[in-house]
From TrEMBL:
Transmembrane segments: none annotated. NCBIfam families: PRK05729.1, valS. The lineage of its organism: Bacteria, Bacteria division WOR-3. This is Valine--tRNA ligase. Coiled coil: none annotated. It comes from candidate division WOR-3 bacterium JGI_Cruoil_03_44_89. It comes from the Bacteria. Catalyzes the attachment of valine to tRNA(Val). As ValRS can inadvertently accommodate and process structurally similar amino acids such as threonine, to avoid such errors, it has a 'posttransfer' editing activity that hydrolyzes mischarged Thr-tRNA(Val) in a tRNA-dependent manner. Residues 16-591 form the Aminoacyl-tRNA synthetase class Ia domain. GO terms for biological process: valyl-tRNA aminoacylation. It is found in: Cytoplasm. It holds the Pfam family Anticodon_1. It is an enzyme of class 6 (ligase).
């Protein structure tokens, strides 16, 4: 006999079972040819900070699948780990420096020491959080993206790509973060709509061009003044200091006669050409654009096609350099103000208009990025993308929900080369070495050249240059984009580039669980990397869950102050309550909206499970009887369980976790507890009830591991028990008993509507062909004292396609008093609804009120309208029967 405390104490239970599972080695997986492998590589959380509720959702989903597959007989491996998160971690640790200090002042060695200390602290806490969440990962295999073996994999990947002609170095316009002092890939730039301005600037026609242009017929549609200048609309006037041309579309008739002429660059007084290029949008601004090849990606392309000079006017900190003339030494923000002031003074600023536009920000420090010409390392992506596109189109890799497949394919078919070098201290050093060229004097004061400038790509640091034999070898100072190690994660964590037994058995992995916001950063790159480096897909299924938000729809984050540490929730509500609640509010692919009271759902469910187990244990002590022949209720609950087991399995196969968990919840709460337990409390026939409960415990285990382990009655751990398989269903019994439940529900609801205590026994008339078979259950569940033989003339009527119920109210309640009570409630509700509608139709109220207040008002309004409809129906029932 199990012993149950009066209340469920999650703290003692969770600590006990986590220790037991680890001691028994249940989380471990080994190469086992007698079993089929099932593998998940945990998306490694960044060591920038502790886990939040988004991680809790993500890892709960993964753990569900690992536990489910383990119980189904698979050798289930879940590889845990954490990511060094190059730029993000460096930014966070820089913020820990003493005020006024920079990392350069602290020094590289000391700063890297601070980073490693940060990593150790956060890594340990993250792993502890994962364990508290019940994550049954094989922690012996925990990886860190800067581990020695993973660093080797990174260098191997770089060298293979380079030798295949897929890595190159060149000067290109990249996204530059002046705060982090590094290049960013396109995917690392977050664009935000901002209220900016469009500045209309006059570019004077060069003197020796004016007469030539005047002789041509003017067109009133030209945005010029007496052929004296061309007008340009721009959002960034400060970059005009680096203009090397103006451009128009070759088919734009307004400006065709200006093509080939020259204009004077305002303020700089440098002549620049007017060129034609199809990249120009004639509908933007005036149809004339300034071309700044060193500070705009599109202008860079135009510049290359037209042989334009590339003038860099800013340094890496966003300060105007010597090419900016008198503006040198001031920030880009101050340069804009000064340029506009000078243009206005010279009469060259025609007008300014409000203009909404997207502005790029660094995804880590949120500084406005600067397009900047820079020497960087790139990966050619077109060739890598082809097999990754084919795999998804052919269904070798599947996306759930399926709509993300099209998002993935659209991006992949328009993929650009990947800038992989970063000007940071924290990360994987680029495995590129240079044979340094130097001039030295010998004893006779003769100058001798040593080194040849050769670029060496190597997995290990070379002792000497293979070309000239020089030994003054220096490594490229840059590090690799953090995603360069992450895209190798599914196979590097299993031993690649070595052909290890783990790699042969556990790879390809089976499932990737992640969020849509990194589908381009990571998912797509892993697929490309998997096919290039291993010739196989990195995983078979990709499940993309929603983003966890607060109750008013904001993404949860530390910066907004709405982030929640899962451990805080666990302490108050328990792990199982957290896991259940977060799934209960997360529809398939939808963003779950969370607030602290959300977790009351899970706490209440845990308490219900605990109380049901406790009740069964009490009934066992009271009814120590031999087996009995299953009755109608037993056959019904057994058949319903078979249906639930089948539905849960189907839902899990389709990655519909909300459907799976709520299917179990509804069955347990509304069928097993509300009806079946009430019956066996009276009959004492508990054998089937106990069997059903144990099956439910096993069915729930992947979702709620701790409480199910405590409730489990088997000799071994529920973790290593067999997951329930659906049995035969008795659909006839389900239909018959289901009708009985509908009848009971109608009687209960009628009692509630008319103020009759639920346990008060009443007479009823029921017309149903198989009434005799379900009478005992109606008596027990609906508290019916008498089945009236003839249909009463007066009474509350409930009708369905297969039965009719009439409940006489005379002698049970005071009909007139009940009528008056309902009329009063209707009157009050109508006034409240009218007031609510008035508030919600008031645009000022909706605009100015706290969004939470508005949402709460809408919710309450819907509830009142629903209640009003019920009351109106009840009043009509009384009027029809008793007038």
């Amino acid at each position: 006999m199990k012993s149950y405390t009066t209340r469920y104490n999650h703290k003692d239970i969770e600590e006990k079972w986590l220790s037991y599972w680890e001691r028994k080695g249940f989380f471990r997986a080994e190469v086992n040819p007698s079993k089929r492998a099932y593998t998940i590589s945990m998306p490694p959380p960044n060591v920038t900070d502790i886990l939040h509720l988004g991680h809790a959702l993500n890892n709960t989903i993964q753990d569900i699948y690992i536990r489910w597959k383990r119980m189904r007989g698979y050798e289930a491996l879940w590889v845990p780990g954490v990511d060094h998160a190059s730029i993000a971690t460096q930014v966070v640790v820089e913020k820990q420096l003493p005020e006024g200090k920079t990392k350069e002042e602290v020094g590289r060695e000391k700063f890297l020491e601070m980073l490693w200390n940060w990593v150790e602290e956060k890594k340990d806490y993250i792993l502890d959080q994962l364990k508290r969440l019940g994550c049954s990962a094989d922690y012996r295999r925990t990886k860190f993206t800067l581990d020695t073996e993973l660093s080797l994999a990174v260098r191997e990947a770089f060298v293979r790509l380079y030798e295949s002609g897929l890595i190159y170095r060149g000067d290109y316009v990249v996204n530059w973060c002046p705060r982090c002092q590094t290049a960013l890939s396109n995917e690392e730039v977050e664009y935000e709509e901002e209220d900016g301005k469009l500045y209309y600037i006059k570019y004077p026609i060069s003197k020796n061009q004016k007469s030539k242009i005047k002789n041509q017929k003017d067109d009133s549609r030209f945005t010029i003044h007496d052929s004296r200048y061309l007008m340009v609309a721009t959002t960034r006037p400060e970059t005009m200091l680096g203009d090397t041309a103006l451009a128009v579309h070759p088919d734009d008739e307004r400006y065709r006669k200006f093509i080939g002429s020259r204009v004077l660059l305002p303020l700089v007084e440098r002549e620049i050409p007017v060129i034609a290029d199809t990249l120009v949008d004639p509908k933007f601004g005036t149809g004339v654009v300034k071309v700044t090849p060193a500070h705009d990606a599109n202008d860079f392309e135009i510049g290359n096609r037209n042989g334009l000079e590339k003038v860099i006017i800013m340094d890496k900190k966003g300060i105007i350099n010597e090419n900016g003339g008198k503006y040198a030494g001031i920030s880009r923000e101050d340069a804009r103000k000064s340029v506009l002031k000078d243009l206005e003074r010279k009469g060259l600023l025609e007008k300014t208009e409000p203009h909404k536009h997207s502005v790029g920000h660094c995804y880590r420090c949120h500084t406005v990025t600067e397009p900047c010409l820079s020497l960087q390392w790139f990966v050619k992506m077109k060739e890598l993308a082809k097999p990754a596109i084919d795999a998804v189109e052919k269904g070798e890799i599947k996306f759930y929900p399926e709509r993300w497949k099209n998002v993935y394919l659209a991006w992949m078919k328009n993929i650009r080369d990947w800038c992989i070098s970063r000007q940071l201290w924290w990360g994987h050093p680029i495995p590129v070495y240079y044979c340094k060229q130097e001039e030295i004097k010998n004893q006779k004061s003769k100058i001798k050249n040593i080194g040849c400038g050769n670029i060496i790509i190597a997995i290990e640091r070379p002792e000497k240059c293979p070309k000239c034999g020089g030994t003054n070898i220096v490594q490229d100072p840059d590090v690799l984009d953090t995603w360069f190690s992450s895209w190798l994660w599914p196979f590097s964590t299993l031993g690649w580039p070595e052909d290890t037994p783990d790699l042969g058995y556990f790879y390809p992995t089976d499932l990737l669980v992640t969020a849509p916001e990194i589908i381009f950063f990571w998912v797509a790159r892993m697929i490309m990397g998997g096919y290039f480096f291993t010739g196989k897909p990195p995983f078979r299924d990709v499940y993309l869950h929603g983003t966890v938000r607060d109750k008013i729809g904001r993404k949860m984050s530390k910066s907004l102050g709405n982030g929640i540490d899962p451990v805080d929730i666990i302490e108050q509500y328990g792990t199982d309550a957290l896991r259940f609640s977060i799934l209960a509010v997360a529809g398939e692919g939808q963003d779950p909206h969370i607030e602290e009271r959300t977790f009351e759902l899970g706490r209440n469910f845990c308490n219900k499970l605990w109380n049901a187990g406790r009740l069964l244990e009490m009934l066992k002590r009271e009814h120590k009887e031999a087996s009995h022949e299953p009755d109608l209720a037993d056959r019904w609950i057994s058949s319903r369980l078979a249906a639930v087991i089948e539905n849960v399995g189907n839902a899990l196969h389709r990655y519909r976790l909300h459907e799976a968990i709520m299917g179990i919840y509804d069955f347990f709460w509304h069928e097993y507890c509300d009806f079946y337990l009430e019956i066996i409390k009276k009959t004492g026939h508990i054998e089937v009830g106990c069997h059903i409960f144990e099956k439910l415990v096993c069915l729930l285990h992947p979702f709620m591991p701790f409480i199910t382990e405590e409730l489990h009655t088997g000799e071994d751990s529920v973790m290593v028990s067999t997951y329930p398989k659906p049995g035969d269903r008795d659909r006839g019994t389900e239909k018959l008993f289901g009708t009985g439940i509908e009848i009971v529900t109608d009687i209960r609801n009628a009692k509630t509507s008319f103020g009759i205590p639920l346990k008060k026994e009443i007479p009823v008339y029921i017309e149903f062909k198989d009434l005799d078979l379900i009478k005992p259950y109606i008596v027990t569940l609906a508290f019916v004292r008498e089945f009236i033989a003839s249909r009463p003339r007066k009474g509350i009527r409930r009708v369905s396609h297969s039965y009719e119920i009439v409940i006489p109210l005379v002698g049970v309640v005071d009909v007139e008093k009940e009528r008056a009570k309902i009329e009063k409630e209707i009157f009050t509700l109508e006034r409240l609804i009218e007031k609510s509608r008035g508030n919600l139709s008031n645009e000022e109220f909706v605009k100015k009120a706290d969004p939470r207040v508005v949402e709460d008002a809408r919710r309450k309004g819907k509830e009142m309208e629903k209640k009003l409809a019920i009351l109106v129906h009840d009043l009509r029932e009384i009027d029809d029967s008793y007038n």
